[in-house]
Input
Amino acid sequence: MRGIVITLLGALLCLLAPAKAELLVSISKSQQRIAVTVDGAETYRWPVSTGVRGHETPTGSFRPIRLERHWYSRQYSLTPMPWSMFFHRGYAMHGTMEVTNLGRAASHGCVRLRLDNAAILYSLVRRHGMGNTKVVVMDGALPAPVDATPMAEVETPPAVDAAEKSFASAQVYREADAYRASVGSDEAQILRERAAWLRGLDRKYGFAR
Output
């Protein structure tokens, strides 16, 4: 009897506790747009780049499975992927320097966003939690926006500006290109030297892993 009472009290407390707002991230491959909705209210709508033909971004409903503030693609020559939010296997939403391609398919399957937009979305996912975040990738169009008003109170990590400037610097990409050229295509050599190279890049630009 006592166990039943405790169980009922626990259930009652759960019901009385305020529900955490759900974060919905909707991505339209036909429109190449992403809509961010918090607790039923659309907050942001941005251009993106999803996968090109042969490297299509998977459609469906997902939950984020991993967050990586600083990430480099081993599969695609250590390309920087800042503010990565992995939602299905190796597919992630992340920041990109290739902003001129936003609004059309251009990736190998990931969802690319402008650096500042990726930082905002990353912060929102961290705030609401991966379990309260749903990522929906669709072939069709997004619903018409009702009133997309930016949230002034979005919590951005303290080092966002520094990280954005570092990743936005073409120097980082030039160094990455030079490194890839020096290593070549030998996968074993890449794996052996990658850690040392990343540590040097972290020290130079103040990244913290």
